[in-house]
Specification:
It is a single chain. With 101 residues, the chain is mainly β. The chain is built from 1 helix and 8 strands. It has one helix spanning 59-72; strands spanning 6-10, 16-20, 24-29, 35-41, 47-54, 76-81, 86-87, 92-99.
């Protein structure tokens, strides 16, 4: 990938994660129509994910916008911070789960 960035996530339990855009395998919507998943590989090659809750009407937009941010590749981007109620993409309501270990 030509450009590189880190996507930052923090859930309500103060679990934090920054994902290197080079490690992202997929950004996908779930069939429940209100969940978007960011799949990525850890340093050892294991598969991990961040599950985001979204507004139903904005699910497709969240996937597109996250993809655009990864391609743009500029610095550290806060995607979802439940502790401070900061969401970098319209339509994200919060984090449903972080799987990183």
């Amino acid at each position: 990938m030509a450009n590189r960035c880190f996507l930052y996530f923090q859930d309500a339990a103060n679990d934090q994660l920054s994902v290197d855009s080079d490690r992202i395998n997929a950004i996908r919507s779930e069939t429940d129509t209100s969940t978007v998943v960011v799949d990525f590989a850890d340093a050892a090659g294991g598969f991990k994910k961040v599950t985001l809750s979204t507004t139903v009407a904005d699910q497709a937009n969240v996937v597109k916008e996250l993809s655009r941010l990864v391609l743009q590749g500029v610095g550290v981007i806060t995607i979802a911070d439940d502790v401070n109620s900061v969401y970098g993409v319209k339509g994200i309501d919060g984090i449903d789960g972080i799987t990183h270990s």
